[in-house]
Amino acid sequence: xxxxxxxxxxxxxxxxxxxxxxxxxxxxxxxxxxxxxxxxxxxxxxxxxxxxxxxxxxxxxxxxxxxxxxxxxxxxxxxxxxxxxxxxxxxxxxxxxxxxxxxxxxxxxxxxxxxxxxxxxxxxxxxxxxxxxxxxxxxxxxxxxxxxxxxxxxxxxxxxxxxxxxxxxxxxxxxxxxxxxxxxxxxxxxxxxxxxxxxxxxxxxxxxxxxxxxxxxxxxxxxxxxxxxxxxxxxxxxxxxxxxxxxxxxxxxxxxxxxxxxxxxxxxxxxxxxxxxxxxxxxxxxxxxxxxxxxxxxxxxxxxxxxxxxxxxxxxxxxxxxxxxxxxxxxxxxxxxxxxxxxxxxxxxxxxxxxxxxxxxxxxxxxxxxxxxxxxxxxxxxxxxxxxxxxxxxxxxxxxxxxxxxxxxxxxxxxxxxxxxxx
Length: 423
Known about the structure:
By secondary structure, this protein is α/β, with parallel strands linked by helices. The chain is 28% helix and 24% strand.
């Protein structure tokens, strides 16, 4: 019996497991390997960090729901992948053999690249995981008793800027509701060359749009910024010019800070020559397949994607939820083709669609495809985006419980927008 192992139980891994079962039917055995026994809807973490959601609202146990689709689950986590042996070593010492491996681990959070960064032994908060967001909420409640300066932003090499923008806007909204905004100077620090770059080289008039939103909310910003060190209540930031040469050094005081780190690949996958690039991201061809190990596929944040363009301070290309779902479908279709002895033909479209909540409004960015020149590029602000983000959270949690791989809502709404998930 063919055995497919999906490494990762996040948005990409869970979606891949369900898509594989739906595409391949009841034939192969499928096992999902996760870190712990719970799925978290990561896009809702900014709300968790300000108390607008509880962790239980955006998490769920996965084993029982996967079992309904005859998908096994291992929550011990992976110690290492041994691609030459077609085997995964679990953290408890057991091993799993596979015929096909789908790597969807997400990233390692590289807080260690900047002294003092991060919630574990550092001085800044994170919304990258739901436990981190819960810790950020605890710190925020203490901050509300004695408010002061806030610094929000992203570290050099970061690739997922949307949540940082979201969190700055959500903090602004929450503080205004509490009538504390006048006591809180806020600064946004980013390696992007301009506000609204998003790691995409801009989307439509995203520069003007996001600058306007920041001005209206009295959020100051520093672009082309390298965070060099963080101490208790103080952040050092080196600002460079368009040629990457030193321009100005800032020492920013803060009583609360949330900074998104750069990502790397997780330690478990750094085995086997040709599997990863130097940062630990999985190398893939246009069919999501690793060139050195053709029975290994990968999708999501853990895949190696080059930057959209060179920037004075390094920025990465984001991997949005829609892009991940297009990768999921391509992987399932190409494994089906391989099982039939046919060549792989499915390719993910890699279209970037981002809904960024701002508390009382929101911004939507669409880049089709992600890399310019593009067929479709637009950015819009409106309360409808806030409502759409809330609706999508509910919809996706239901999808993860039902295992429905193409609900009618997703199928027809995307079709109306002229968006396809594979080509």
